[in-house]
Amino acid sequence: MWSYILRRCLLMIPTLLGIITLNFIIIQAAPGGPVEQSLAKLQGIESSATSRVDGSSQGEVKVNLSNGTQSQYRGAQGIDPEYIKELERLYGFDKPLHERYWLLLKSYVQFDFGDSFFRDSSVIDLILDKLPVSISLGLWTTILVYLISIPLGIKKAVTHGSAFDVWSSSAVIIGFAIPNFLFALLLIVLFAGGSYFDWFPLRGLTSANFDELSTFGKIKDYFWHLALPVLASVISSFATLTLLTKNTFLDEINKQYVTTARAKGLTENQVLYGHVFRNAMLLVIAGLPAALISIFFTGSLMIEIIFSLDGLGLLGFESVINRDYPVVFGTLYIFTLMGLVIKLISDVTYMMIDPRINFEAQS
Predict the structure, then answer these.
(1) Which pick of 58, 145, 247, 255 has the fewest CB atoms within 10 Å?
(2) If residue 149 lies in a helix (H) or strand (E), which one and from where to where?
(3) pTM
(4) Which residues belong to any copy of the ABC transmembrane type-1 domain (predicted)?
């Protein structure tokens, strides 16, 4: 197993390199870079995401500078070229593309992600600052999803074809079909002062007077703020796990060893939880790391925006819009590395739970 883990770790290096290289090329070719945005802000020109969607790129637009020369940056009309050169030095664009790429790789090997272009903070500090929000959403969503999906999936498998199985499947599919942001808006309208009840807060992870509250009051305030965001995330997340649990249990229930166990006089609960449960939960348990990372970093963007939660999803989105390259590449590098490690942990978990699985022999 150790040789398999070593090979997988070595395989992460070209994978990371390929992802970083591809995204470096795409980001560098995209219009509306940091120099262009700074020029736009200097002249009071709109530099939002929608204002840049016009099909042009930095290299396709030539404007006259104050000394009569031309620049590749939109918004450089009448600007002192020395000031533009200073901006290029500030953002690292005074160096050729290949040199910038090499410096990027060299610093990332040392886990030095630099400082944000537009925020007075390092990339690491920004990620650490936003991490509690994403951890709160991801952790409680994952716990609730597993607490709901596994018992529900087992119940559906045991009562397969019954009225409960039919209507619960319908409810699960409807919940899966509704986007989480749409359900979040519905929760706001109903319970956050939209049109009916004003029971839950609409902004932030804690109240303004959080530090003044007692320990119990802080816990209550924390979950009071998390109730609607977590509920919106859970609704669209548990369908896949519920159906996976049901199908794996159905597959195990129909196997010969279950018939043998019943013939020996074991009760249905002894058969179900003493024999079937251990085998059926292999896929579900081994898939926990991947499910956790998915909920943490891919399913929280719209929820964070709607409920004004300043987490990693919102940070990544704003960084792409603002062309804050250090934050974009830093978060991409960390998330990609975490995803690769989590995938390895998932495969190792398979082998630990079921010794019959041997990825090393297969590879």
Answers:
(1) 255
(2) helix 123-158
(3) 0.72
(4) 131-346
